[in-house]
Amino acid sequence: MQSSPVKKIVLFLLTIALFLLVRGGNIVLAGPAQIELYSEAEISSAVITLGDIANINPGEFSEENLAEIELGSAPRPGNSKELTAQIVDLYVRNSALSRSDFNLSGAETVEVITGSQEIAEDEIVAQLIEVLEDEANTDTALEDIDYNLHLDLTSEAEKLKMPAGEFSLSPLDLDPEKVGRSSWPVELEVEGETWRRLNLSAVLTYELPVYVLTTDVERGEEITEDILEQEKKKVEIYPEDLILNLEKDLVLHGESRRSYSEGTVLQRDMLELPDVVTRGDEITVQASSGGVEINILAIARERGTIGEVIELENPDSGNYFRAEIISPDLARAL
Question: Which of 207, 231, 256 is the C-terminal boundary of a domain?
Answer without folding.
Answer: 207
